[in-house]
Design brief:
By secondary structure, the protein is α+β, with helices and mostly antiparallel strands. Helix content is 30%, strand content 27%. It is built from eleven helices and 19 strands. The strands form three sheets. Strands 3, 4, 5, 6, 7, 8, 9, 13, 14, 15, 16, 17 and 18 form a 13-stranded antiparallel beta sheet that branches. The chain has a three-stranded antiparallel beta sheet with strand order 1-2-19.
Length: 452
């Protein structure tokens, strides 16, 4: 109870001014004087991140995710979607099947974005066998016949004088067959210009594009209105085609200069205004027991809808729940629970909240020694309607061999992993581009060039 009470006090501290933006106007248009006024309110924070000068470590490399850039001091590997179910909500996995953050999700515009583990053409054939509708006409013909047959059954039941309950049962079968016929008519095969692509529309509005690029299956999933000629459908399809044309491969460590959004192995070039969500995990090759997860995205202005991003869980809630460790060991095996002292940390010139928890599990033998696992959390909520201030949440998770036997070592001490965690945060900042993002251009009084 003492621990829970302490955490509740901590949560109240973390939900202070840094946890919310009380100055946000309840209704803000996309542009104009009201938006300029809101941006001016946050001018000191925006200027801070703009003028931040990173202190890159000699010999280190840089990576990017979302609209952010950060430093890594050794080779890393990303957790990617497993080949067997590229889009079925399984957590991304590292090469040895250790998971990344189970809440990971990436999206751009109106599409969910997924990058698979290394794949071959045989994997694409597996997807073709599973998803491609080989003969749409035959399916429509089959369900057309089924509707006629079921309607005949209804007529026959009425002619026999069957009870209304029996007639109603036959009519429900007719309605189900008509629904299946509608779905069959709405199944479509699309072409977005990729060699060997598989682009299918399910008939219920789910559009999935899969393509093998540079040894990985890229999956783009969206939902559209299935009615041909519907204005909402035409608008959604135009957005999808536009955004797919913006996509290109991104080499490891490549940090583009132009505006856009980074994902593991991918880059979407844009003008700095498109909605996005980038949540991905990586780990250092020399420390496979420790995963670092960065969750970042755009928060739409009030009244503009939810957007594609799911907001991260706040730090204090993660500490209270801490599912990653407590669910993997019996309660009587937990020797100590230590809350990492809450505080602030500078990240890209801004102040992030930081806290965490460490669990010491008591072992019984030399073959089952005591081990300490941990999670750290840091983040800032961002500013609604300002692409230059996305929300950012970073998590570090230490895994034990008891949880994942395929790991060849126990996690390093918390103090060692925390130094890397803090180093990543220190230089994590908005990726400055040529040209700069429109938010910065307005703040600096520059004339934003109109797109041709």
């Amino acid at each position: 109870m003492k621990i829970v009470k302490a955490l509740l006090i901590t949560s109240a501290t973390l939900l202070g001014p840094a946890g919310c933006d009380a100055s946000t106007s309840p209704s803000v248009p996309r542009s104009g004087p009201v938006l300029e006024e809101r941006l001016q309110q946050h001018m000191p924070r925006l200027q801070t991140t703009r003028d931040f000068t990173p202190t890159w470590t000699p010999g280190s490399t840089r990576e990017c995710l979302g609209r952010l850039v950060f430093e890594v001091d050794g080779p890393i590997e990303w957790a990617l979607d497993p080949l067997r179910k590229v889009e079925d909500n399984e957590p991304p996995l590292f090469p040895d099947d250790v998971p990344g953050d189970r809440r990971e999700r990436m999206g751009y515009g109106v599409m969910r974005v997924m990058v698979s583990q290394p794949a071959t053409e045989e994997v694409m054939e597996m997807h073709r066998d599973r998803y491609q509708t080989a003969d749409r006409g035959a399916s429509v013909a089959a369900w057309t016949s089924a509707v006629r047959r079921d309607e005949a059954e209804v007529a026959a039941a009425r002619a026999r004088g069957d009870s209304q309950l029996v007639v109603d049962a036959y009519e429900r079968v007719v309605m189900k067959s008509k629904e299946e016929l509608k779905i069959a008519r709405n199944r479509r095969i699309h072409n977005f210009g990729f060699p060997g692509e598989l682009a299918t529309e399910s008939g219920t509005g789910r559009l999935a594009v899969r393509v093998l690029l540079d040894g990985n299956v890229i999956s783009l999933v969206s939902y559209v209105n299935s009615e041909e000629g519907n204005p909402l459908r035409e608008e959604a399809m135009a957005k999808i085609r536009r955004d797919i044309k913006r996509m290109r491969l991104r080499a490891p460590g490549e940090v583009p200069d132009e505006p856009g959004v980074c994902f593991p192995g991918l880059f979407f070039a844009d003008d700095g205004t498109t909605d996005y969500h980038a949540h991905a995990s990586f780990r250092y090759v020399d420390r496979p027991n420790v995963a670092y997860s960065i969750d970042t995205g755009y928060r739409p202005a009030p009244g503009m809808g939810e957007g594609i991003a799911k907001q991260p869980i706040s730090n204090w809630r993660q500490v209270l729940a801490y599912p990653g460790v407590l669910l993997t060991m019996p309660a009587d095996d937990v020797q100590r629970r230590d809350v990492v002292k809450p505080g602030g940390i500078l990240a890209g010139g801004l102040s992030f909240d930081k806290t965490g928890i460490a669990i010491t599990r008591e072992g019984d033998t030399k073959l089952d020694p005591s081990v300490r696992t941990y999670q750290l959390y840091a983040g800032m909520p961002g500013i609604e309607g300002v692409q230059a201030m996305p929300f950012v949440s970073m998590t570090m998770q230490g895994w034990s061999q008891q949880t994942y036997p395929q790991l060849k070592q126990q996690p390093p001490p918390l103090e060692e992993s925390e130094k890397r965690f803090d180093a990543i945060l220190h230089n994590l900042h908005l990726r400055h581009t040529t040209p700069e993002m429109p938010d910065y251009e307005r703040l600096l009084g520059k004339q934003t060039a109109s797109p041709e």
